[in-house]
Automatic annotation (TrEMBL):
InterPro entries: PWP2, WD40/YVTN_repeat-like_dom_sf, WD40_repeat_dom_sf, WD40_rpt. This is Intraflagellar transport protein 122 homolog. It comes from the Eukaryota. PANTHER family: PERIODIC TRYPTOPHAN PROTEIN 2 HOMOLOG, WD40 REPEAT PROTEIN.
């Protein structure tokens, strides 16, 4: 599996997509691709349990992170580009952050020792040095929070994130969802909108509306979470709902 960057079509290229860069590294299917605000970086998560951070910039070196024991289904950049939220199939959210090191060896050793003391675990791959453009630093795991709406009973099917409103929504196989705030990952709302899988979820421009697509029923549901009211609940599609 590969990630391919293309240049947007313009009149000078005859409105053709021009392949710009190819990034390899995953050994299994890619499950999600996320752009950072400003489109400087992209993150991909895969069934091989790894997350890769890359950039269309030619001088950027790909970063590999390993944070989950279950398949990650989505990853999102925070507004500052230095935070990544990773969601796996059982609803575990892992927050990793990038810190620019002034004195790389000493800073890295302190961060590694602090992590191992707090968790009792050996520091993993995300403590290796990488470059974000020209700034050396290291990735660290800030927190791991289980936020699955149904515990481990039903897997998380889809997730969405709004970096402006700092909210994330996780939808499950049995039609329920949980809304959480970031970066502290605290619960805002839990609701069931049916008994069928929510295959797709999207957030409105202001972060107030949540849209869910159910392929099995051909149904579209729009929920206003602040007032806790339905904006739309329509079952009029004859084929599977793939995106909203």
């Amino acid at each position: 599996p590969t990630l391919v960057y293309y240049k947007s079509p313009v009149i000078m290229t005859g409105w053709q997509f021009i392949r710009h860069k190819v990034v390899k590294g995953h050994t299994d299917d890619i499950t999600h691709v996320a752009w950072a605000p400003g489109s400087q970086y992209a993150a991909t998560c895969s069934k091989d349990l790894s997350i890769h951070v890359s950039s269309p910039e030619g001088h950027y070196r790909r970063t590999d992170l390993t944070t989950h024991s279950k398949t990650p289904i989505a990853c999102f950049f925070g507004a500052d580009n230095s935070t990544i939220y990773i969601v796996d199939r059982v609803g575990l959210v892992v927050v990793v952050t990038y810190t620019i090191a002034q004195k790389t060896p000493a800073t890295w050793q302190r961060a590694k020792a602090s992590y191992e003391k707090q968790t009792g675990k050996k520091a993993g791959k995300y403590f290796k040095y990488h470059k974000i453009l020209s700034k050396k630093g290291y990735w660290t795991m800030e927190r791991r929070v289980k936020v699955s709406p149904d515990g481990e009973t039903y897997p998380v099917y889809s997730a969405a994130y709004d970096h402006k409103a700092n909210i994330m929504v996780l939808a499950t196989l049995r039609g329920s969802f949980k809304l959480v705030s970031t970066p502290d990952i605290t619960e805002l709302q839990v609701l069931s909108v049916g008994r069928d899988p929510l295959d797709s979820v999207a957030l409105g421009a202001k972060g107030d509306w949540l849209a869910f697509g159910c392929a099995r029923l051909g149904q579209l549901v729009v929920w206003e979470w602040r007032s806790e009211t339905y904006v739309l609940k329509q079952q009029g599609h004859h084929a599977g709902v793939q995106c909203v």
